[in-house]
Structures are given as C-alpha cells and as structure tokens.
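Appendix B. One record, verbatim.
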Amino acid sequence: MHCLHVALGARSYPIIIGRGLLSDNATFAPYLGEGGVLVVTNDTVAPLYLSRVVATIGAQDCQQLVLPDGEEYKTLDTLNRVFDSLLEARRTRDVTLVALGGGVIGDLTGFAAACYQRGVDFIQVPTTLLAQVDSSVGGKTAVNHRLGKNMIGAFHQPKAVFIDTDTLASLPDRQFVAGIAEVIKYGLIADTAFFEWLEANIQALLARDHECLVHAIETSCRLKAKVVSDDERESGIRAILNLGHTFGHAIETHQGYKSWLHGEAIAAGMVLAARVSAAVGWLSAGDVERITALITAAGLPVAPPGDIGIEDFLELMAVDKKARGGRIHLVLLKEIGNPVVTADYDQAALRAVLSST
C-alpha cells in the first residue's frame, strides 16, 4: 500500500493506493461521518463493485444511487437525481457521499457534495485509470453544459482518495488507453525523467504490468498533489495541468460528449499544443516527434476529428475557463517538462496549426 498526501491545511487528505482496498473496512471507516452514506455509481460499475463497497462500508444507513454511464449524462439533470436521493432520505450535513466510478461519477458526486447544504463530505473511489491518476485528485468538481465542458462547478476537496488497482482488471481496453493520456501529460509538464520512463515502458504499461501501473499511478498522483498543494484554485501554476485540455474540451463539446473519450480528446489536444509550441519557435521538432510517437505508441489519436474546423475550434476555445479578456490562454511547452501558460503567442501560428489538421 502506498500513501500520498495532498497538503491543504485543514482540507488536507490522503491518497491511498493499493490492492483490495474496496474490501478493506479499515480504509473507509475513519472517513465516514455519522449521518449515513450515499454511494453514487453508474450502471457499468455497479454490477462489478457496488455490493462489495456497500458491504465493506458496513453502515446500516447506506443508500445506493446508480446513474447511467457516459459523459453525456454529466449534466444538471443527472445532478438533480443525487439531490433527490439526499433530500428524500432527509440527509443532514453529516452525510458522506462516496463516488464509485470514473471521472464522470467523481466530478458529478463531488459537485453534489459541494452544493448540498452548502457542502458535505465525500470520498473518491476511482475505478478507471484516468480518474485514478487525474480527476479524483485536486477537488475540481463540475457538470457539463451543451456549450462547454465543466463550465458549471466548484472546488471541493474530498476527505480521501482510495485507489484500488485491482479495479483496472475489469476496465475495457479503450478506457484504459484513454487514461494513459493523462499519465503522459505529467511527463510533459513536470517530470522529464518520467516521460523517458514512459517511452521505455509504454508496452509494459499497455499490458497492465502491475509494477508499471503502480509506478505510473503513484508518480502521476504525486505530481498532481504537489501542484494542487501549491495552487488549490488554479490562480497560477495549477493551470499547467490543462496541457492539451483547451483543444481537447473543444473536441469533446463539438462531438456532443459522445464519440470521443476524454483521454482521446486530450491526447489529440496535447499534440496540437506541441505543434503550436513548435510553430511559435519554442519546442523543437525533435520533441514534437517524441511526443507524437509516444502518444501513437499508446494507441491514442494524434489529430482531431475531421469534422471540426478552425472556426469551430476558436469559438469553443473562447469559452474555455482559461480564456481571459477575449484572449485564449494555452498551455504550451518550451521543452518537455517545461510548460508555460500564456496568451502571448502568435495567433497566426495557432490558425496555421489548426488549418493543417
């Protein structure tokens, strides 16, 4: 078992990584309040793990809410189903929500916890690689709007994050590969040695070698925990975690949150960010080739869908959360491991890259 720490003063919490955590009552018990529990999951994860988690929690007053699976259900309408469950059971401020699932369940449950009675406790139990290495850590919670991804949300930190690596055995290949996109991101923004490790070990990671998985998850979580501890509410350095996301969110929104997975869109977005970085004279052509090669080796897309044009991109990117004063802020790379958040780039270079996709 590995334990990391997100240092946020009174809002600090552990990230516990290990095998068999879903069956370990000692892991859950210290973080459960006295007002009962609501476990929120989806109809894909529920048949696999819900009964086990409910048995492990062992609380007599444990509700279960099973939502439909998919990014298209990360909406205000679905959020209201969580509130309905809480209110119908007359839950008070000492209730604990448990988010059992991937990024959609984690974001939606966390946002419900942030809003219900102005804030209640919740625990993240991520069951996908993407959620384990990224979305479960850091307290970003939100739902989507048809005009923009994650535009309605709040910062609300969990009480704890429990990462049971055994859950990855049931994860479909496409979902698993999508999670690798976020793993690659950490090498690009914060750890050149980790990027080199990924280049050398990508096939073992794809084969789900357990030692490689634990190293990738722990390294990703450690890097994110450090950034979040330094900048909880994304007023500065935390924005580097959005490498590829301004492009990727535009892709997801344009596709109606249905045909592309989040990690797939972020992978293509990171390649676009690398190409813009090179077009403005920062990133070397060799580094662009290395980034593209690693993402390709992971089985992820390196170009956006063909039906999204320049004006589509620019319009959707303009409503990104990092946009300020009418300017689209991008996370670009001066070199691998050296990101910068800027609106001071050649707009013609951005257009040229988007026109050549």
